[in-house]
Design goal:
- By secondary structure, this protein is an alpha/beta fold.
- The protein has nine helices and eight strands.
- Strands 1-2-4-3-5-6-7-8 form an eight-stranded mixed sheet, with helices on both faces.
- Strand 6, helix 6 and strand 7 form a beta-alpha-beta unit.
- The longest helix is centred in the middle third of the chain and has 16 residues.
Length: 288
């Protein structure tokens, strides 16, 4: 990576480059079906955080919150708007009011809404990234890998520009196992498991995890990466895994977590030069 690129990367990741003014905000947009029930119309809402002075056709991150599929609320890395990204913060239905696959259908509806509408706000259809933390990461990973969810909404999952996966469950989510009467000690990987849909993707994937995360969480993520490389033949320059000191609820407080996330998004979106090759160099440099 050239010295000028390193300086530029530092400015971007510190949040001091490009955009000093506040982002534009459009809140509480309903994305669900017209015939949705009262609870669906309450929960299936998104907030848009858009760059204040965007370049034409800015990239977008669709972000799903965590909370074990039973709690949480819309949120996400809003500061990314200061670096040229739009953020779509997604709410979705929760247990016990609904059960699987309602959560996944909501996630697919939200991503489909973005593909069909974000151009009206200045977003670039070719640079729509999806991601989330914990349960939100699980939802994003499932609909990125199991193409059927988006196909039902006339969207090809391979149009996704990249997947940002922060501490997600790669076996069947524990809440869905609970709904099925399956003990938490049984590590099931069925139709509700990202591992069940391992496939080669044209888009890059970046996984982040704590080194003292929930029991087996980092092992699940490492297994997912290994299976993507071994069986799906995912190129090593399109799947990345990083661990950080801390537990499920503390490791994201490490300053390196958002820096690495932003570096991935900015390089993959072409905002920073060199693409994923430069992101690999960045990881090698900052991991020393």
């Amino acid at each position: 990576m050239k010295i000028s690129s390193i300086i530029l990367l530092g400015l971007f990741l510190s949040g001091t480059a490009l955009l000093a003014s506040p982002e534009r905000v459009v809140k509480d947009i309903y994305y669900g079906p017209e015939d949705g029930d009262e609870y669906q119309k309450q929960q299936c809402r998104i907030d848009l955080y858009l760059p204040a002075t965007p370049e034409k056709d800015f990239p977008v991150l669709v972000y799903f919150h965590g909370g074990g599929l039973t709690g949480g609320r819309r949120g996400g890395p809003v500061p990314i708007t200061q670096q040229g990204f739009g953020l779509v913060s997604v709410g979705y239905r929760l247990s016990p009011q609904v059960k699987a696959p309602a959560y996944l259908n909501d996630a697919a509806d939200a991503v489909a809404w973005v593909f069909k509408n974000i151009q009206n706000y200045g977003g670039d259809l070719k640079r729509i990234f999806i991601g989330g933390k914990s349960a939100g990461c699980y939802l994003a990973t499932m609909i990125a890998l199991d193409k059927r969810y988006l196909e039902k909404r006339d969207i090809d999952a391979d149009q996704i520009a990249g997947l940002l996966a922060t501490s997600g469950q790669m076996i069947t989510h524990f809440q869905i196992r609970k709904e099925q009467g399956i003990s938490q000690s049984r590590g099931i990987s069925d139709e509700y498991s990202p591992l069940y849909y391992v496939r080669k993707t044209p888009f890059p994937i970046f996984l982040q995890c704590g080194d003292n995360d929930f029991p087996c969480r980092q092992e699940e993520n490492k297994l997912f990466v290994a299976m993507m490389r071994k069986f799906a033949k995912q190129p090593e320059d399109k799947i990345f895994y990083q661990e950080y000191p801390g537990t499920h609820n503390t490791f994201t407080g490490n300053k390196k977590v958002p820096r690495d996330r932003n570096a991935f998004l900015l390089h993959a979106a072409g905002i920073l030069p060199g693409g994923l090759a430069s992101f690999i160099q960045y990881l090698e440099t900052t991991s020393r």
